[in-house]
Amino acid sequence: MKRRLTLVMIAMIAICLGASSSLAQVGDEKDPDLRFELLRLVKDDQDIRGKFNGFRRERGLFGIDNKTLNEKLNNDPELKKEFLALANRCGCLADRNTCRQRRDFSEVGAGSDEETATV
Fold this sequence. Notes:
Blueprint: H1 2-18, H2 32-58, H3 66-75, H4 77-108, H5 113-117
Helix pairs in contact: 1-2, 2-4, 3-4
């Protein structure tokens, strides 16, 4: 799971670095629909990560080790339920994005570095 999230984040970062326009501004790329979809995936990913990090900060779960996190969650069933629900939403979104990217790469191909930078 960790490797899959890492691969998704690498792809998302690459997309973000190449994306100088906002979601509303899609230029004359080879495939503006694909670019718009990829930018939307990045936004969705960042939104859920922001919510998850905010949840963790608000409840004192950010920046602690796994042992302490597990102790806190095991001592508060409601907190654990909320935490796991949000973590599962993050995982589902990552899975959806990974499937979407695989489909895009199989349909469009990776192309050369120059071609990929213009998508």
